[in-house]
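User: These chains co-purify. Model them together.
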Amino acid sequence: MDFRHSDRSLALQEQVRTFLDEHVYPAEHTFEGQAAAYRAAGTPFRTPEVLAGLKVEARSQGLWNLFLPDAEHGAGLSVLEYAPIAELSGRSAHIAPEAMNCNAPDTGNMELLHMFATPEQREQWLDPLLAGEIRSCFSMTEPDVASSDATNIAATIIEDGDHYVVHGRKWWSTGAMRPECRIAIVMGVSDPDNARHARQSMILVPLDAPGVTIERSTTVFGYDDGSHGGHGVIDFDHVRVPKENLLGPRGGGFMMAQARLGPGRIHHCMRSLGMAERALELMCERAVARTAFGRPLSDQGVVREWIAESRIRLEQARLLTMKTAWLIDTVGVRGAATEIAAIKVVAPREALWVLDKAIQVHGAAGVSGDFPLAEMWAGLRTLRLADGPDEVHLRSIAREQLKPYLPPRS
Amino acid sequence: MDFRHSDRSLALQEQVRTFLDEHVYPAEHTFEGQAAAYRAAGTPFRTPEVLAGLKVEARSQGLWNLFLPDAEHGAGLSVLEYAPIAELSGRSAHIAPEAMNCNAPDTGNMELLHMFATPEQREQWLDPLLAGEIRSCFSMTEPDVASSDATNIAATIIEDGDHYVVHGRKWWSTGAMRPECRIAIVMGVSDPDNARHARQSMILVPLDAPGVTIERSTTVFGYDDGSHGGHGVIDFDHVRVPKENLLGPRGGGFMMAQARLGPGRIHHCMRSLGMAERALELMCERAVARTAFGRPLSDQGVVREWIAESRIRLEQARLLTMKTAWLIDTVGVRGAATEIAAIKVVAPREALWVLDKAIQVHGAAGVSGDFPLAEMWAGLRTLRLADGPDEVHLRSIAREQLKPYLPPRS
Amino acid sequence: MDFRHSDRSLALQEQVRTFLDEHVYPAEHTFEGQAAAYRAAGTPFRTPEVLAGLKVEARSQGLWNLFLPDAEHGAGLSVLEYAPIAELSGRSAHIAPEAMNCNAPDTGNMELLHMFATPEQREQWLDPLLAGEIRSCFSMTEPDVASSDATNIAATIIEDGDHYVVHGRKWWSTGAMRPECRIAIVMGVSDPDNARHARQSMILVPLDAPGVTIERSTTVFGYDDGSHGGHGVIDFDHVRVPKENLLGPRGGGFMMAQARLGPGRIHHCMRSLGMAERALELMCERAVARTAFGRPLSDQGVVREWIAESRIRLEQARLLTMKTAWLIDTVGVRGAATEIAAIKVVAPREALWVLDKAIQVHGAAGVSGDFPLAEMWAGLRTLRLADGPDEVHLRSIAREQLKPYLPPRS
Amino acid sequence: MDFRHSDRSLALQEQVRTFLDEHVYPAEHTFEGQAAAYRAAGTPFRTPEVLAGLKVEARSQGLWNLFLPDAEHGAGLSVLEYAPIAELSGRSAHIAPEAMNCNAPDTGNMELLHMFATPEQREQWLDPLLAGEIRSCFSMTEPDVASSDATNIAATIIEDGDHYVVHGRKWWSTGAMRPECRIAIVMGVSDPDNARHARQSMILVPLDAPGVTIERSTTVFGYDDGSHGGHGVIDFDHVRVPKENLLGPRGGGFMMAQARLGPGRIHHCMRSLGMAERALELMCERAVARTAFGRPLSDQGVVREWIAESRIRLEQARLLTMKTAWLIDTVGVRGAATEIAAIKVVAPREALWVLDKAIQVHGAAGVSGDFPLAEMWAGLRTLRLADGPDEVHLRSIAREQLKPYLPPRS
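Assistant: Joint model of the four components:
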């Protein structure tokens, strides 16, 4: 066992840290100002302009597509090596991930395309995504069913001559509202008579295809999440796409969704920890700066205990996430199933704990827009539901734990 | 001991329940639609029109100013009798309290005026408030100091001939953004050389007085809280008001703020429980309606445990709040100090617990604007900070508990 | 609503408080010393001698059988009136309940006999129990099945001519080890073909009947609970008792067990709160007396928060228990089912919370026998399992809550 | 980063696992039986005889003194390599550690002697300890002061000619009651005028020295912990020992205590996790074996959630402990201070969480002596106080976290 990062990873972390210090943090104020101005102008889903320059800078430094474990298009980093980069990007979650072309859901979509796309599909969609020229969304969850159970999914993908007809209503298609978003990866039932987990397929649906209506964006608490493209509610009304648009094997949707989740979970979790680390810094800063009842908040035992607990909880969540990354690298997503489920529960939960305390230390300012805490909290709270609520993941872990004790099913 | 409500209280509860069923719930959709339209039109702080009719209806039914423990202007209810009315109003917290002219912060302000205003002050401000014609705000908290320690307050009220000059910057002046808001009760230091708790006074400052600038509204987890007038950041820049505007005794600000808090806490806490009761209903409805992994969520043991715990927690919080109300009625705010502090911690905390589980049962829908849960959560989370964070109240309770064990101070 | 105790109840509480101060607390040291001496002598289940005098004193003061809601044999107190007496007795739980002939499981057994016994059964068993001359045990739980589901019970009560033959193995028959214990109320299946909840009966089995073997006593976190008679593991091996020994209606065992539980839960819960109140006092005393890092523990914010939380939690648990008592008095055990389940979860849980913190404030002394905290903790922890684990009670509450939302069963 | 154990460590773990399976688990029943018999015979502190053979077996297999990071006397394992061995030994905590001569407090004492003893001291005390022929105790904590603050320690070590006079009263000298215990390492104030942390020294006091009285053993919950020598309360009444008995540098007591704690914490924490892992196994076994309300407990969602949470919590606590071990190996005890404090809080806390749930799944059997759960719980609860309560460690962590935010002390 060795808890030291590789030299390469340490160097890269240092480089990203410098990029954050020199370019990202200084741009935060401008970014939020531009987002507010777009909102006031009735165009909340425009991407703040300041981002363009940051993308150029990041790309010029080689801080581009680092998430992709492919030496040709990405940096060839292992999941374990990329994890601390994801954490650092989470410290400025509105800007840094996208500046480095490492933002969700595009990362997951690019991974899917990288693994499963045909050369034509790659050229048309993956290349501009890797170049950061267009954006994409992932349309799986549906408003009408408990989508935590993927077999509930009701949208259909029906063969009709040279085409597939995609029909259904999706929501939480994050990023779909932004003008740059061109393509949706849609999950639906193509083979209803197959075995339970072989019924779904994934298909590429251009957002300008006839029959696609982006109805509206759902809010998250009171946030429209405009600067990263909102969360689209999309109606796919008998949308016809050529057969060539099928992504990966027919009936392979469920399996591909699982594959997509592994590294994506690491990214989400590490970014969550990055947010929480930043919140902890804000908590410490505020605690030493504010005085009540004759002494700084940082002298209050209760506040001290929160700070200590925060350190402990983040360290534990990070270690578990890093180990999970290592498992994905060494034994694969399947072999890491229990841990992938575990971090999905742990990282947002612990990050939320830290955020809650940071808010409390800030007083009413903490719930306001004057500090980033409330918005970070809202995003993290959503992660307890995205990709299935905590309870579904705990259920999977328990099933695995109980296996040795149960009689084999005949 | 007798846990039964009085006949009068039961009858009134029944009447309010009917008012909610017949008038308030059916108006919710319209209310939110109007609020959204105003927001889209750039006037988020307008009061949705539908409210006007509801006020007429409530008043015609005698459901008006029930909060005021005065038989002439209110209904002459004890705090204990009013408490369950407050809870019911919390079930539709955007509409019902204001429809019945029982909404914060006007209730607290009306109480202060009722107790301390001169006849002229009453005529000018209290009467139109009781009539629901104007609205008011309370300007105590300041952005630059930890206002949980009221002795930190820095705004000044300085005598100058026939006037007082009010100077300072306040925030979280809830309701200040609405057009109908005319008057602020401002707390400031008038007598800096007095004993620590006799330095502040309260003064009436019309919002159209020269020197008053309402800078902006702070958000709460992304919500502008527009339909009830936002939360104003107000700059009072050497505002001159006649000496007659002083409210109550000079140097009595701290004491008056304390007096204001007692019944107001009951209202806040009961409304919180009303919100949580509604959330629990939504949780049960959703749990029976959604199916995952082959059975309704309501058959999942974990969901069942949440529902049971919710019932227990709300019942306990309600009993403590009711007892506190009874104590205020029988031994006064001072005698109920420990309990008033306790419910401030308990009611929002337990209500938040229920809301969190209700959200979880709703999946991603729970954090969106499609259900009222996320917004209720945000409001309740804010209550853990309003009037001082939990920790300040726990501190007070502990001091009281430890008194018998400590040597008397000489 | 009225949160004031009746004058009669207040007077009685005052009398019990004086009895504790003058007689019980001063006897605690002697009691524990005698118990230790008996243990060392290999007779751990002897009742410490000092108790005899306390019983005489209590009886002479009329503090005797107060639990029994019958004016002739008890004091004719309502459940609500007795509840605070039970709490006070919990403050010295080894001594006070038994000194006042109000100790479990005899109270529950006396209630059963009072409600269901024939005149002959009353004369033989109830009268000496009410006189405090003999003791009894209740044999329901079985080591071989999950007894939280009462329908799992496997012991049998089979008719055979003029006799019933009782057969089965029971444990947690509290009090069975003491020499004064003469009689067990045994629950078993008499009518296996009846409906699920009409299969069990209760029967009186003298402990000296042939076939009864008290095998051993189970410990509770290392404690033998010797001074109140341990927890017997009893083998009933084809024990023949006359038909007249059947208690109450045949097939009525389940119903009688439920009826027994209502008031008994109030007693248990209130005694738990009494223990916790005493622990809170010890916590405060220790906190002001011990100094670490330059100041008394009572100056540490974290300790203060524990003390405040303890006060809040105990107050809430007490109110819920009192309301439940009131419900039992006014609408009966059935009408109070949800609340009876709720306090079973709440009272031990909150009391344990307080105990845990009290232990922590005492440092290593807290887990030792030098303070009563560890033993109180162990007893309270057991209450989370006695009469069914928390989870079973939460399950019942949830079922009740969900009823209005579920389709009626056809 | 690499989460794989070294081959050597894996091989050793396998060997220990086999030793447990073949020798230790099968001896558990006998061990507890012998302990019970000694207790009944009034000699509770005798070491059960079966242990002798296990020691011979372990030593013959080379499973002896593995804790000692010294290739000559121990196995030359790093702290990181030994950690999983400690965890495995915790699975049978009464037997395995001592069978392998790796039990506390002897391990810590042997480490101190190994680091600081003179050749004469080594020959007299370390060699027989390493041979498992004698046992030792560590006398630091005092009943009269809050020993969590080591500067409170009041015992004195006063120079008098060729001797030191040791005077004071100690408790929680674990192991002191056993007949084989010969030597105490006593901490006391030798230089009261030195700087705060340079006042204490350690000195070797043979338990048969005149003036040493072992007064009694304190219990832990209801356990005497007899089979591993109880917890002695020792009076050192002006005990004269030769100057040569001073251990390490005079005034170095505090520093030596700190040094002792680092690896010792790893051992304690890993053993705790070993206990919890065994409890989790018992929980799973019971959950599948017991049926209530028509299905096995393992089908109850709540029980499943406990099992999943247990797995997550133990995994997180283990990773943090392993990282801490690695830090001790690579940057030393000082550099690992925050983590050493963190695991002290985390490992017992999480292990207790698991134990609590395991008990709950076992029903009343869980609190009894029929399963090892209650006793494991009691031991783990004590760990939250041993070497300082959680709160002291959280305090240290917070101080470290806040350092960068505070102005430098001038």
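The two ends of chain B are 40 Å apart (CA to CA).
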